[in-house]
Write a structure and sequence with these properties.
Strand order of the largest sheet: 5-4-6-7
Largest sheet: 4 strands, parallel
Number of helices: 13
Helix content: 40-55%
Number of strands: 7
CATH topology: Rossmann fold
Number of domains: 1
Mean pLDDT: 89
Radius of gyration: 19 Å
CATH architecture: 3-Layer(aba) Sandwich
Structural class: alpha/beta
């Protein structure tokens, strides 16, 4: 693999560096963990019965759903449990994930062709998250501003918009990511075991979505406990936990959560950007199963 450095800068020179190879885009710091070796090790990661992969494009509700899954699968009083640190197989030491107690839950922003082969062959459970691309883009921008891996970027919104729509922001193109998943799900020889969670549905009907999710996971929680889980994992509670220190120390924890609302993109998009984005959707995403109205 040949990785090239690409600078993302606005007219003032603000921004950050990325490294890109084939269809992959990562922050430049990714080079420190030997990306070629990492991609190979991920594909060869050994499957264990009960493993769950949460697959998503960044800022589509990954951390939120990780917490929900944890409480769904961990019996006992909800209020007495601490939220665990998410394990991102793209960056987290794989040896630590290997040693987790079953059922292991890990997250990834990689496309299906780069996932652990044994997990796919064994029909391991995959939870695929999706969110309206406009809100995803805005949340992604705020994430880069608050995260040290992006040098707390002050990249202008116009420049971010341009690079995000072109797939130049880690982890690459939103549209290519979901189109690759749709292609994999529709292939005649596919045997994927995937449950799709739409962020907006989870916001609007959390209880109903949790019932579907626990059925997919093969676990049972009373409706009262499901409501407790929804409250425990709410944006309000997570932010309070971060401030009071009730959650375990996690780097960038505060950067993982912000507003969690639907339609916040309207505060950033100009009329011309909205029109331009509609054309992009028409070209790249018109008939996609992930292109849901908001």
């Amino acid at each position: 693999m040949e990785w090239r450095t690409v600078e993302i800068r606005d007219e003032k020179g603000d921004g950050f560096d990325t490294v890109q190879c084939e269809d992959m885009v990562f922050p430049k710091q990714f080079l420190h963990i030997q990306p070629d070796v990492r991609m190979k090790d991920i594909k060869e990661f050994k499957y264990r019965d009960g493993d769950v992969l949460i697959c998503s494009y960044p800022k589509t509700g990954t951390h939120w759903v990780f917490n929900l899954v944890h409480f769904l699968m961990a019996p006992g009083p909800v209020e007495q449990k601490i939220m665990p640190s998410p394990r991102l197989i793209d960056l987290h030491p794989l040896a630590e994930i290997e040693q987790l107690t079953s059922p292991r839950v890990a997250i990834t922003h990689l496309k299906p062709n780069r996932l652990p082969v044994e997990h796919l062959q064994a029909r391991g459970k995959i939870i695929l998250l999706a969110r309206n691309p406009r809100d995803t883009m805005v949340s992604h921008m705020y994430h880069t501003q608050r995260h040290e891996v992006f040098n707390f970027s002050k990249l202008s919104w116009d420049c971010f918009f341009d690079n995000w729509t072109k797939g130049q922001i880690p982890t690459g193109s939103y549209f290519d990511y979901y189109n690759s998943w749709e292609k994999s799900l529709q292939e005649q020889n596919t045997n994927l075991n995937v449950h799709i969670v739409f962020y907006e549905n989870l916001i609007k009907d959390g209880l109903g979505e949790l019932k579907k999710l626990q059925q997919f996971l093969g676990v049972t929680n009373t409706e009262d406990r499901l409501n407790q889980i929804l409250d425990r994992c709410s944006w309000r509670r997570i932010k309070v936990d971060v401030k009071t220190g009730e959650q375990p120390a996690q780097p960038d924890q505060s950067e993982l959560t912000r507003k969690g609302v639907i339609g916040h993109w309207r505060s950033k998009f100009t009329v011309s950007q909205d029109e331009m984005f509609n054309k992009i959707l028409e070209q790249k995403f018109k008939n996609s199963m992930f292109n849901k109205p908001i």
